[in-house]
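Example record for the data management plan.
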Amino acid sequence: MHFASELFDTHPRFIQLKSMLTDFFNGEVIDSICLPGIEHVISVTCAPTPATLNSASGEDVSSLPKVHIRTYTLQLLSSGTRIPRVELVPMGPSLDLVLRRHQPADPELLKQAMKRPKLKKTDVEKGLGKKKKNMEVDDMGDLRGRVHIAKQDLGKLQTRKMKGLKAGADDMDVEDDGFASPPKRHKIQ
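Corresponding structural encoding:
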């Protein structure tokens, strides 16, 4: 998800909209991007901000800009360099939203909902003991880890063995009709 406007970080109505859209699409904040791993991009932009929005102290619904939501698929094309050229192809749906009705949250409930546990970074690392590889504690104090599994060697895989597949099965006689005759039995003397 990409939010392309300063209003999503400064205006309270747009901050709330950004929070709702991020929760709805289960977005996570990421530090770096692996291009082949991205399939879709959701772009959220605002129409040009009118001057009355910056100067007016009151909330006038008509002065709020429209919000445009567009979804794209990513096409990675050769560019002649190591980094591919990225093109966004519109895939739909395309939405144009107008912020009209607004009911602010109860300040006391909002305060409880936004509450985070008071953990110092040193306390978090002490809880982990010695700093462990591929383990981290998020902002809420939950321990998260990553598991890396090696590629499985299918040559060593134990499968069910059948009698018909053993090496002695080629002792059978094959007749002209293509059917194998039962093996000859020898009398033991």
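Summary line stored alongside the record: The chain has five helices and seven strands.
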